[in-house]
Specification:
Helices cover 25% and strands 21% of the residues. It has 260 residues and is α+β, with helices and mostly antiparallel strands. It has two domains: 68 residues, SH3 type barrels (Roll); 162 residues, Muramoyl-pentapeptide Carboxypeptidase, domain 2 (2-Layer Sandwich). The strands form three sheets. A five-stranded antiparallel beta sheet has the order 6-5-4-1-7. Strands 8, 9, 10, 11 and 12 form a five-stranded antiparallel beta sheet that branches. A two-stranded antiparallel sheet has the order 2-3. A hairpin with a 7-residue loop joins strand 11 and strand 12. About 5% of the residues have low confidence. Bound molecules: zinc ion (ZN). InterPro entries: SH3-like_bac-type, VanY-like_core_dom, Zn_M74/Hedgehog-like.
Length: 260
């Protein structure tokens, strides 16, 4: 297995995500059967029976015998394909991200955490229905404006963007005052070092794959290297979209962008 590989929990009664690679270590949460986790960078000295993973934004260790690469166990469509995410709910499932962005997003979280800066991936794939819901905020719905992008105009709809938020004392925090200001600066710097671009002041937590044009995405020209977990969801979202904004043509109907 390699970093970024999607793994599914195969244990029939769930699996502990532990803080350290040993059975007696603190359980961070119990991952249900079928849950998707992503293999993270392994640490030196970790016993072979343990694998370090990222699960819904948290990182920890699971017993290696109870996870398997998704490609070998994914028989049915994932829950997000058969059951669209409600528009007021975010998804932090790395499964639905394009593999290129997925690997970079995980690398950014790892690098920040290694510096003691507690960022996690807060929102990953965002369905066009949720983009419409967020776009309405501050316009036709109460609240502050949170996005400039209509459905299919945000990289989130293509699995090519993520929102990274501080997670301290078991709480999400958007605080950028005092010493935390420098943490957000590090998010942007490390993002850029990993080939991502920040929107900075307008959408502080947002990083997206750099050197793309949203017009290419809207025309159905996607980065190459997509895997089935990304592609199946995107195709589903395109086929299911019924809003006034035009969805892109389905992947496969247009040539992919080159890796250059
Ligand atoms: Zn965003």
């Amino acid at each position: 297995m390699t970093v970024g590989t999607l793994l599914a929990v195969t244990a029939s009664s769930g699996l502990h995500l532990r803080a350290e690679p040993e059975k007696a270590a603190k359980s961070l949460r119990v991952l249900p059967t079928g849950a998707r986790v992503v293999e993270a960078e392994q640490q030196r000295g970790t016993p072979a029976e343990w694998v370090r993973v990222l699960a819904d934004g948290a990182q920890g260790f699971v017993a290696a015998t109870f996870v398997a690469p998704v490609a070998t166990v994914l028989a049915a469509p994932s829950r997000s394909m058969s059951q669209p995410i409600a528009p007021d709910r975010r998804s932090s499932d790395p499964l639905l991200l394009h593999p290129t962005f997925r690997a970079k997003a995980l690398a950014v979280v790892d690098a920040l955490n290694a510096e003691g800066i507690p960022f996690r991936l807060f929102e990953a794939y965002r369905a066009p229905s949720r983009q419409a819901y967020l776009y309405a905020q501050g316009r036709t719905r109460p609240g502050d404006i949170v996005t400039k992008a209509v459905p299919w105009a945000s990289y989130h709809q293509y699995g090519l963007a993520g929102d990274f938020v501080l997670f301290e004392d078991s709480r999400w925090s958007w605080d950028a005052a005092g010493h935390r200001r420098a943490w957000w600066d590090r998010l942007w710097v490390i993002g850029e070092e990993n080939g991502l671009e920040a929107l900075k002041r307008f959408e502080r937590p947002h990083l997206q794959l750099a050197r793309l044009e949203v017009g290419d995405l809207q025309a159905g020209r996607f980065p190459s290297g997509g895997d089935s977990s990304w592609l199946d969801n995107l195709v589903w979202q395109i086929e299911a979209w019924a809003g006034p904004e035009r969805a892109p043509p389905s992947p496969g109907e247009r040539p992919a962008l080159s890796d250059a």
